[in-house]
Design brief:
It is a single chain. The protein is mostly helical and 184 residues long. Helix content is 80%, strand content 0%. The protein has eight helices and no strands. Helix 2 runs antiparallel to helix 3.
Length: 184
Amino acid sequence: MTALIILAVIVVIIVLMYNSLVAKKNQVDNIFAGIDAVLKKRYNLIPNLVSSVQQYMQHERGILEKVTELRSQAMKPGISDEQKIVLDKQITSALGSIMVAVENYPDLKANENVMHLQRSLSEIEAQIAAARRAYNQAVTDYNNAIEMIPTNILANMMHYTRKQVFEITEDERKNVDVGALFKQ
């Protein structure tokens, strides 16, 4: 009878660990899907932004072409989550360059369409930042679960592997030189 109770307790523990791992994996996938939706929203804004600023920014044509190319790559079906994370970093950097360049064109900066696009992009960037934080927390919980004893044994049997978190680039870690921004 005691052996049966011990066996039942072990089975319950394994079921709880299994369910916990599946829940953490599904949470990571669910939050990443939310990030995907916000990124798609941003990708849809990019053609409007590029067409609005293209006439003014002949000198920054390279930046506009780079953003358009990155958007095209990000919109391709079947790219991996890791590729999406890398492309997101590149697009974020390129969009930042466009917004800095817009400051050099007073007529463009005052254009109502560009102002609306800047506000829209700022809102979307805030949504992406919030979604990244939620995703990174879910990935951390998931990675902890698949690496810690005893759930790591079950995770290995289920072929669960580590997930990549969103990390900021070296440029984003630097302090903003406000003085240089005013000199532009």
